[in-house]
Amino acid sequence: MQDDRPRLRDRLYAWRTALLRSDGFQRWAARTPIAARVARKDGEALFDLVAGFLHSQVLMAFVSLDLADHLSDRPRSLEDLSLRTGVAPERLRVLCQAASALGLMQRKRDGRYALGRLGAALPGIPGLAQMIRHHDVLYRDMADPVAFFRDAPATELAAFWPYVFGSGAQIDPDTAATYSQLMADSQALVAQEALAVIKLDGTTRLLDVGGGTGAFLAAVGAAYPKLALHLFDLPPVIGPATRRFAAAGLAERVTMTGGSFRTDTLPGGADAISLIRVLYDHSDDTLRMLLAKAHAALPSGGRLIISEPMSGGAQPNRAGDAYFGLYCLAMGTGRARSAAEISQHLQAAGFVDIAQLPTARPFITSVVQARKA
Length: 373
Hints:
Layout: H1 8-20, H2 23-31, H3 33-64, H4 67-70, H5 78-85, H6 89-101, E1 105-107, E2 113-115, H7 117-121, H8 128-141, H9 145-151, H10 156-160, H11 173-195, E3 205-209, H12 215-223, E4 228-233, H13 235-238, H14 241-247, E5 254-258, E6 272-276, H15 284-297, E7 303-308, H16 318-331, H17 339-348, E8 351-357, E9 366-372
Parallel strand pairs: 3-4, 3-6, 4-5, 6-7
Antiparallel strand pairs: 1-2, 7-9, 8-9
Helix pairs in contact: 2-3, 3-8, 5-6, 11-12
């Protein structure tokens, strides 16, 4: 018979939880100097969670009203900003004060508003403003969070990413263009982070699977002038890549193949394959199938490179678990996986020398690489 009695550590957990939720303990902590600092910090953290949605809406308004552009050359008065944005001064004042409190703007001594450090940096981060504007879709999907988690409703975000659910043969060109632009806008930053830790010296040909309009390959081509490049993705998606490669002077170095990794064999001839923000879009079954195809396409000693946002696994992190985890759930397929979980899938597919390469900004992307024996 199973012993249902709580273990000692569970009893200690229950005691600690009861203590922390006790009104008497909270009043004592507020009067005790060391405990008061901890209690205040916890209280501020809880309030930030309560106000988080409003903070995100301040950010959305800041971006949508182009306040970073309006303030790029000098601080401006509330009246000036009102004329530029079409927002009444009394309402714009609330937004500017909120944006200043969040570090996006700052209020000068003369009453004018200027960019804060975060607001000044935001336009320089590739794709960030575009992603923020796109978040209105995610916000609508999560308007009722209990229903979102409990009922698995049909989501607007799933309709925005139709390429995930099928071979792509029926993708509307306008939808493909919207998806491709949003991905390409942020891919430069992902490439910057990934290429800081990925070393391709000695590689002769890189096949980028699911590479969209070629933003990652273009960055690789600039960093490695002698490396041959091969792009593989859905035909409606890779069309604009021709212009990108031509503008970058890479047209003669790049081969482009239209196809779906769901139904087609991956092109051979590459001694390295990259999957940049691909796996987390797909189910475990699709992941296993794709890793098997990558293993089959690589020669002995060939390398597989995976770069995407990752869960913290046993140690949950804000980016992978509190953002991308929910985003993938709203998409209706795929999920943010930890580096350890991806490594297990790689091992099952026959890869060896599996290693996680720490990036400077894991909230943008993490990297795992492996080799075919």
